[in-house]
Amino acid sequence: MAFRTLLCALSAAALSNAAFAAPAAPSEPSYLTREDVQAFAHELADREGLDVDEVLRGLGKARAIPSVIKAILPPATPAARSWYRYRARYLDRMRIDNGVAFWNTHAATLSRAEEEFGVPAAIVVGIIGVETIYGRMKGNYEALSALSTLAFDYPPRAELFKRELGQLFVLAHESQRPVESFHGSYAGAIGWPQFLPSSIRRYAVDYDGDGRVDLENSPVDAIGSVASFLRQHGWQAGQPVAVPAKIGDLQKANAAIETGIEPRYRPNELAQLSVQADVPQGADLPAALIRLESQEVPDEFWLGYANFYAITRYNRSSFYAMSVYQLAEAVTQARKARAK
Q1: Does domain 6-76+138-232 have CATH number 1.10.8.350?
Q2: Separation of alpha carbons 266 and 45, rounded Å
Q3: Kind and range of the H or E element at 123?
Q4: Options 35, 54, 131, 180, the catalytic residue
Q5: Can you give the pTM of this predicted structure?
């Protein structure tokens, strides 16, 4: 990510910047000179039933990419969180216009996915728009070298990326593709929807019926795979995503905010914490109280339902989930306006 798919472990803000930069040409020696890499190859082959010589040949083609380490490092002086700035990055005219065009081009596929998985077309459009601007920014890092760099040269996240590197080898074997042929972000996220290898294997679908899953080149496969992912992470057809909330007493409401983004509170419980929906509610659904902090404007408060939580399984950030939801709404409105 993802998932607790692993794509969720990466911030959308990072993906929007360094993830899509042109990588420096790898120039480091082969990883096969290292004993830990040799051990990884043998363990992977034993665990997954792969040919160890095939794994070793693949790893022999991987090279360290210094820009990958630079991209994943947290900033030395982190900026204060700001929903105002974050939102502006993802709800811009380019994404909205391209979202309308993408929806119009793939309307039949989006409708099919909505019927099959229960996930609205607009939400699928929102995710692909936030992730790659509808395939325009998929990343051009060689996934093999990017994941090897993070697996073997970035100790803070080594175990996570070793798992993903292993999954890349399994994916390549299952797809009958050279392991070095996959390309994506600096963190190894691949294709239109930016799935990590484990998520491709677990959630992606061959939605265009050509006999293979191809998230790098098939927007149809991407649509089906995003809908499949959300459905498997608890999407509830016909239920709301989020509504604005009113806060009467912030000190009381903080108890709900601090609980996190998993929906736990019924309307009567929120009322006891001085929280209520800013619009008429339908069913007695559990919700989380989401605070979207900004430095430039007053904070926003929303009630996030099970479907909001499902979006956060793709990326564990309330900012990310709200940007997907609001981009989906903006593209829906723009498409309707242009159809008149």
Answers
A1: yes
A2: 49
A3: helix 121-132
A4: 131
A5: 0.91
